[in-house]
TrEMBL record:
Residues 150-273 form the PurM-like C-terminal domain. This is Thiamine-monophosphate kinase. Mg(2+) 5 binds at D211. It catalyses: thiamine phosphate + ATP = thiamine diphosphate + ADP. Its EC number is 2.7.4.16. The keyword Metal-binding applies. Mg(2+) 2 binds at D47, D75. Reaction mechanism of ThiL seems to utilize a direct, inline transfer of the gamma-phosphate of ATP to TMP rather than a phosphorylated enzyme intermediate. Catalyzes the ATP-dependent phosphorylation of thiamine-monophosphate (TMP) to form thiamine-pyrophosphate (TPP), the active form of vitamin B1. It comes from the Bacteria. Gene3D superfamilies: PurM-like C-terminal domain, PurM-like, N-terminal domain. Coiled coil: none annotated. The gene is thiL.
Length: 309
């Protein structure tokens, strides 16, 4: 029997473990009612994943459910926010119960790990696309921003670059070797939520790397009205990416998207004992982005994925 819109919502999207006392009203009415604690500010972000643009139509739906939420939690992490709520707008070609069950499993497993309560959404029929809106909070004035980097600040990365990009090349059959780590990072990225929260009051600026390091660091530099020098030899790379780079295409870690690591700046005198973050360069007053590689400085254009470009 065909699964109708309301039965679908009830069956797959209303059973969840996370409930916050700040949720006055969740799923089931025309809107949710939320009451963040006093002296906090709400941080809101939204991201859409379109089949064929952001993911391959054949991707495991459980991983897709995870990723749809993860990319939004990554934006909250870049703001230093603690995630609390999400809404989910699903456009589906058909209501396939097995697909929906797997999607919901991936979504709610990540949601539970980060204390995210689903508080509403929309369900429509059409070409497969998933929009998630995530909400979190920060103590008043504590949100991290892209602006705020100053000349002399160090630039840090929370994890390897180009790994998800390699995963995509593997999925597209463009690389001759396999790398399960790269494919996992592409399809099931881990948002750096705890790191983002711990960087409040420490990072002078922060962004998450979704469109490629050159492009996203470029946005941070633009917002801060500064420039930067990146040290190629210091970029954190996985074994698989090193192997790929040995083939000659050294640009991958600079231009490939989907890594969802944090790129942030902090004053140089600040000793960052922080969990696995790697210094990869420094901020300069002159605007622009230079890559120091093999003893030369190469100017990088802010290239990365851009829709409509
Ligand atoms: P409306 O017509 O008022 O927009 P809907 O009929 O679309 O409301 O949705 C009914 C309820 O189910 C609303 O509370 C809505 O937020 C929720 N909802 C709809 N789709 C989803 C979904 N995919 N996930 C979670 N909640 C959903
Ligand atoms: Mg309504």
């Amino acid at each position: 029997m065909a699964l109708g819109e309301f039965e679908l919502i009830r069956r797959f999207f209303t059973a969840q473990a996370v409930r916050h006392r700040e949720t006055v009203l969740g799923i089931g009415d025309d809107g949710a009612v939320l009451c963040p604690p006093p002296d906090h500010e709400l941080v809101v972000t939204v991201d859409t994943l379109v089949s064929g643009v952001h993911f391959l139509p054949t991707v495991d739906p459980e991983r897709l459910g995870h990723k749809a939420l993860a990319v939004n939690l990554s934006d909250l992490a870049a703001m230093g926010a603690e995630p609390r709520w999400a809404s989910l707008a699903l456009t589906l070609p058909e209501a396939d119960p097995a697909w929906l069950a797997a999607f919901a499993r991936g979504f709610f497993r990540l949601a539970e790990r980060h204390g995210v309560e689903l508080i509403g959404g929309d369900t429509t029929q059409g070409p497969l696309a998933i929009t998630v809106q995530a909400l979190g909070w920060v103590p008043r004035g504590a949100a991290l921003r892209r602006s705020g980097a100053r000349p002399g600040d160090r630039i840090y990365l929370s994890g390897p670059m180009g790994c998800a990009g390699l995963g995509l090349k593997i999925r597209l059959g463009q690389v001759a070797f396999d790398d399960a780590e790269a494919v996992l990072r592409l399809e099931q990225p881990e948002p750096r939520v705890e790191l983002g929260v711990s960087l409040r009051g420490i990072a002078s600026a922060c962004i998450d790397v979704s469109d490629g390091l050159a492009a996203d660091l470029g946005h941070l530099l633009e917002a801060s009205a500064v420039g930067a020098v990146l040290e190629f030899e210091q970029l954190p790379l996985t074994e698989g990416v090193r192997r790929y780079l040995a083939g000659g295409d050294w640009r991958l870690p600079l231009v490939a998207g989907d890594d969802y690591e944090l790129c942030f700046t902090a004053p140089a005198e600040r000793v960052l004992a922080a969990s696995g973050c790697v210094p990869v360069g420094h901020i300069v007053a002159e605007r622009g982005l230079w890559l120091r590689k093999d003893g030369r400085d190469i100017e990088l254009l802010p290239q990365g994925y851009e829709h409509f470009a």
